[in-house]
Automatic annotation (TrEMBL):
This is Inositol-1-monophosphatase. It comes from Amycolatopsis rubida. Pfam families: Inositol_P (PF00459). The keyword Repeat does not apply. InterPro entries: IMPase (IPR033942), Inositol_monoP_metal-BS (IPR020583), Inositol_monophosphatase-like (IPR000760), Inositol_monophosphatase_CS (IPR020550). Belongs to the inositol monophosphatase superfamily. Catalyzes the dephosphorylation of histidinol-phosphate to histidinol, the direct precursor of histidine. One of its GO terms (biological process) is phosphatidylinositol phosphate biosynthetic process. Pathway: Amino-acid biosynthesis; L-histidine biosynthesis; L-histidine from 5-phospho-alpha-D-ribose 1-diphosphate: step 8/9. Its cofactor is Mg(2+). Keywords: Hydrolase, Magnesium, Metal-binding. It catalyses: L-histidinol phosphate + H2O = L-histidinol + phosphate; a myo-inositol phosphate + H2O = myo-inositol + phosphate. It is an enzyme of class 3 (hydrolase). GO terms for molecular function: histidinol-phosphatase activity; inositol monophosphate 1-phosphatase activity; metal ion binding.
Amino acid sequence: MAGVGVDEAMPNDLKNTAEQIAVEAAHLVRTAWVRMRSGGEVAVDTKSAETDVVTAVDRESEELVRARLERIRPGEPVLGEEGGGALGGGVTWVVDPIDGTVNFLYGLPAFAVSIAAQIDGVSVAGAVVEPVSGRRWTAVRGGGAWLGGDRLSVSAADRLDLALVGMGFSYARDRRVRQGRLTADLVGQVRDIRRRGAASLDLCAVAAGWLDGYFEHGLHRWDWAAGALIAREAGATVLLPGEAADLGEDATFAASPGIAAELRAALAEGGAAEV
Ligand code: IPD
């Protein structure tokens, strides 16, 4: 559907499709997780580093998403963490079949299926579904962000020294050390730091007011495509890779407006651009 026009109903349709498929994939992932926790084997490979893992369940989840998209939205390009792909003209589907794969593997129930519809690289609809809790976050560009039936808005935080801030580490060892230094610099300026291990859920946590801010360098498009839209639609100040040179070319940043400027300045002063 390259070059398709965006009529008013379309983003809602896209959101419904993303949610419906993410729920289905989340069911597959949850079933595999329960089986694994009762002693079942899951095949594991590594990717960019020995610590960067992909399981057979990541691949099965992405295959399911791709098959459903092909049936419901035939011909639209898909960019997925495991199967690759590229942004096309018109709608592109951006898919993380398990965000938080390391958590999944360890049995830690903080992982999600993330699906976004982007047009010209901009997210217009998205869904993040957490298989174990069943929580579903959704958003439509210009239509707000939702956790199930509840409309979300970010926290009213207005002091950086009282802010709870999430962050994440890259899989690359040298980079992790620099990220650790940046975090060490920040930890004395905020209430506390959280590192949950699933970027999409961190962004949804900002949307829900469970975090006042979040930053990470080196995310891939599939990590942020749905979550960043959800955070922005809940009122967060969001900066995507390529949008904030003072934070570094590949920084993702989301924060409640009351602390966004202060957090951004603290990160920039801490050397975020060199991370
Ligand atoms: C990872 C998680 C993690 C973040 C990494 C991501 P994956 O995604 O979102 O929190 O720190 O940068 O790569 O590999 O589990 O899909």
